[in-house]
Specification:
Elements: H1 18-25, H2 28-37, H3 44-51, H4 55-67, E1 71-76, E2 85-90, E3 94-101, E4 104-111, H5 123-134, H6 138-184, H7 188-200, H8 205-212, H9 216-229
Antiparallel strand pairs: 1-2, 3-4
Helix pairs in contact: 2-4, 3-4, 5-6, 6-7, 7-9, 8-9
């Protein structure tokens, strides 16, 4: 299910929908552009040559990425003394997660600013970045950072393995729950409300109503009927 929980609280520049973001990134050329911009700023002509795409098409793709807030641009002086050139770079810190299984669907977009400011077990990475910033020799600076990135990549691989395992378990649990729910609840709408509750871990009434496009009073009545069969803890 699409999780809308943070959209209302995001800064203005992040008020794009998940659908709009996926629409912008469904084009492989735009993904290649964004990949390059995440490494360093580029001019449209540079991107055109690297990707083998016309400069006109590149500019069109850049505008689409800019509309979604993924890219920003600024005029820079030309090294050759010619007219100013517009340079583009990646802008946002976003994470998009889409999980699909026989009894599982979850899509969510969130800013990375939601991450904790620090975690004690990864203090070594912050220390590596601090040391690199204070290192005057760029070669030594890169070596320091490269070691930290290698360790971070190993950590991320481990996180993804655990996440995949947990998602498989959740999919199996949801499948088991669905069979039991169908045996008890005859109403399709009530089943959808209960599935959403299980999937989202106890969402509030307004979130259920918004996600399923139902009036809150209707959802409230359904929850009351569902509660007689399944005495679960619902948020108010």
């Amino acid at each position: 299910m699409v999780n809308p929980r943070k959209d209302r609280d995001w800064p203005e520049m992040l008020k794009t929908t998940l659908d709009a973001l996926l629409s912008a990134l469904e084009n492989p050329t735009r993904r290649k552009i964004l990949e390059r911009l995440a490494r360093e700023s580029h001019y449209p002509l540079q991107l055109s040559k690297e990707l083998g795409v016309s400069q006109q098409a590149v500019v069109k793709h850049l505008r689409a990425l800019e509309v979604c807030g993924l890219v920003t641009s600024a005029e820079e002086k030309s090294d050759l003394g010619g007219p100013n050139r517009r340079a583009y770079r990646a802008k946002q810190h976003l994470s998009v997660q889409i999980d699909v299984g026989p009894s599982l669907f979850h899509a969510e977009m969130r800013p990375m600013e939601e991450a904790p400011a620090r975690l004690p077990e990864y203090a070594w990475a912050g220390e590596a970045v601090r040391r690199a910033k204070g290192e005057k020799d760029p070669r030594r600076r890169v070596r320091l950072i490269a070691d930290a990135i290698r360790r971070l990549n190993r950590e991320l691989d481990g996180v993804e393995e655990r996440r995949s395992f947990l998602l498989k378990l959740k999919d199996a649990a949801m499948r088991e729950a669905q069979g039991s729910v169908e045996d008890v609840l005859a109403s399709y709408e009530e089943r959808q409300v209960l599935y959403y509750f299980l999937d989202e871990g106890g969402p509030t009434l307004d979130r259920i109503a918004e996600a399923l496009d139902l009036r809150e009073k209707v959802v409230e009545d359904m929850i009351r009927r569902i509660g007689r069969e399944f005495p679960l803890k619902w948020e108010s």
